[in-house]
Amino acid sequence: MSKSGKRISSLQDLADLAGVSRATVSRALNDSPLINEKTRKRLQALARKHNYTVNQQARGLRLNRSRVVSVVFMLDPRSDQHPSDPFFLEMLGGIADGLAAHDYDLLLAPAPIPSIQELAASRAVRHADGVIFVGQGEEHKALSELVDQDVNMVVWGSEIAGRRYTLIGGDNVGGGFAATQHLLELGRRRIAFFGNMRSPENSARYTGYQSAHVAIKAPCEMSLTFDIPADMQHAQTTIRAILQSQPGFDAIVCTSDVMAIAAISALSEIGIKVPSDVAVVGYDDILLAGYSTPTLTTIRQNIPYAGGVLVDSLLTLIDGKKASDRILGSELVVRKSSGA
Amino acid sequence: MSKSGKRISSLQDLADLAGVSRATVSRALNDSPLINEKTRKRLQALARKHNYTVNQQARGLRLNRSRVVSVVFMLDPRSDQHPSDPFFLEMLGGIADGLAAHDYDLLLAPAPIPSIQELAASRAVRHADGVIFVGQGEEHKALSELVDQDVNMVVWGSEIAGRRYTLIGGDNVGGGFAATQHLLELGRRRIAFFGNMRSPENSARYTGYQSAHVAIKAPCEMSLTFDIPADMQHAQTTIRAILQSQPGFDAIVCTSDVMAIAAISALSEIGIKVPSDVAVVGYDDILLAGYSTPTLTTIRQNIPYAGGVLVDSLLTLIDGKKASDRILGSELVVRKSSGA
DNA sequence: GGGGTTAATGCAATCGATTGCAATTAGCAA
DNA sequence: TTGCTAATTGCAATCGATTGCATTAACCCC
């Protein structure tokens, strides 16, 4: 296998070796019905033996597609932070699986997105057959404009006015509602909301938070709504400052599990007991949620599954068909320690 | 900008528009010294105006390179699990940054690696200018064979006999030593070691663990060495089973922070106090380590920096130069709760 | 054996960008 | 104006794979 005269690196090499034209080899490797069964087998065996794989750049050039899908994480631009939230990793895993199953490659776009204009001109977008955006950041308008430039794309996020792209997302209103309802049922009445409100997903969760109060005619104080940055470092300093001011809440609804973990840590620091003094509910149900101390009560989003849905929708678009929006279910997961 | 007659999608289009040959346009966009300064400016402005970017597939085909680097995470093959450890995400972020700085794209290889043979034939490897392996898995031999196939590659991991690839890694022996020494200094004498021993990195850490005992002439019992799978789900069941058997240790050195978190959770479940009854030290210093409850004492690896080093070494190789192996420092980070 | 079909293969253009070499133009000195 | 050099630009081949069309071979039926 290793001592074959010269390196086989193109269809032509293989064709010469087999004594046929490169057209024939191409058809054989692509299972064209035009080709004789025996020739096909012979050539496929030969290709395998010489460890030959088609040059995707050439193939892509000819066919005008690349079998590459880009993934772009839209982060809070104020934190020039990388994604540190395991949510992103789990999502990436789900997307990677979905793409692998359909024989697509995954190109990861550089983390801090420049302007959407630059992004539109970047290789990540031009070179790919389609793009998956995870989160809408604060650029929902620009995202809609991208659609007009004939970019195949799907977005993970939440409904927002003027949207023109295909949207996949969790049931954020329902999730916010369930989290809050759970705490209300436990008798908590001063429930804080922790999250970055500029994200459409979080404002949907906030809507659910309000509805839950309304549903049982409980008052819902604006003073308990706190704008917390998404990355942990800033989150924890902000939370510490809030705790200093003795806000007097007996529960917190957080917009992510890592934020909940940071909050619990800040609470324990100053001797506040979770959940007896303050109950905390997270969001996402990242894997760690079940293993941290205390274990987290949280809103479960099936993240790997979501990744698969994103991929399926995008591939539908790439096929030239229409893909419909989807809202995936979110459910409350009660674990004994943090939230009850 | 939007109402330009037809879409400019190739050099030829742009050349026609400007009334020059496509050779000229190509040279202008690539800052060739052959081109007249005025023409260059004019053509570059035109390209920008029409939002034109070169087709990378064509360019790559011609130049025989792709400006793509693949990243492969070598996971414990027994868990057909995705990477859930934030370590991977932080590493990925570091690598992504390094690549972006040099204008390379990042291709993420599908997570559960098939055989190395298949991998060698995959697009992820063939289509890329180079490959970064994170971890050696249990395939160190196969990795060395890949080098012989003219694959530009660097590997994050630990020294191992018969290695022929460029290696970048943390100081695992030193890290294992420091973690253990810290616990010994606190007076602990029955220190358990938790980790998957088939990974070269972990066995290096184990070596450090043993040396620390030897250094102060403390006995080091084999019965306190436990083989724990890398993924959290299996890790926690295994740890629970171990605790059932009342092994009687007063400290644990873990080979990752998530494992430490899982261990702490299992300990609290049955009422064992951390760190008073059992002290725990993690490894990696993932971002969460500072925010979990209790905060983790751990061995810090500067993961984003490591990502940058991996990239630099790989690009050196791609340039045809020799890249040297590097061992990056690991230092103990003491946080008050878990390990002291 | 002639004529008509069908199956299998080859030929050559094509995708878009780069680059060695040839050709053109300009500039300048005599 | 002529001749020579240097500065620009154009021509055309090339990278590797795909595919419409032409061609060849094989086979069948009278």
Write up what this structure looks like:
Two copies of one chain form a homodimer. Chain A has 340 residues and is of the alpha/beta class. Chain A has three domains: 44 residues, 434 Repressor (Amino-terminal Domain) (Orthogonal Bundle), CATH 1.10.260; 127 residues, Rossmann fold; 139 residues, Rossmann fold. The first copy, chain A, is built from 14 helices and twelve strands. The first copy, chain A, has a six-stranded parallel beta sheet, covered by helices on one side. In chain A, α8 links the parallel β3 and β4. In chain A, α2 crosses α3, α5 packs across α13 and α9 crosses α10. Chain A is elongated, with a radius of gyration of 25 Å. The mean pLDDT of chain A is 90. At the A-B interface, α4, α5, β2, α7 and α11 of A face α4, α5, β2, α7 and α11 of B. The first copy, chain A, binds a DNA duplex (30 and 30 nucleotides) through α2 and α4.
Features:
homodimer, 340 residues, alpha/beta, 434 Repressor (Amino-terminal Domain), Rossmann fold, 3 domains, six-stranded mixed beta sheet, 12 strands, 16% strand, elongated, DNA-binding
Structural shape of chain A: elongated
| Most residues in contact: chain pair | A-B, 55 and 55 residues
Main sheet: strands, sense, barrel of chain A:
6 strands, parallel
The amount of beta strand of chain A, in percent, is: 15-25%
Order of helices and strands of chain A: HHHHEHEHHEHEEHEHEHEHEEHEEH
Helix content of chain A: 40-55%
The chain-level structural class of chain A is alpha/beta
Strand order of the main beta sheet of chain A, please?
A: 2-1-3-4-5-11
State the assembly state of the protein chains: homodimer
From the N-terminal CA to the C-terminal CA of chain A, the straight-line distance is 63 Å
Q: What is the CATH topology classification name of the largest domain in chain A?
A: Rossmann fold
Q: For the record, what is the CATH homologous superfamily label of the largest domain in chain A?
A: Response regulator
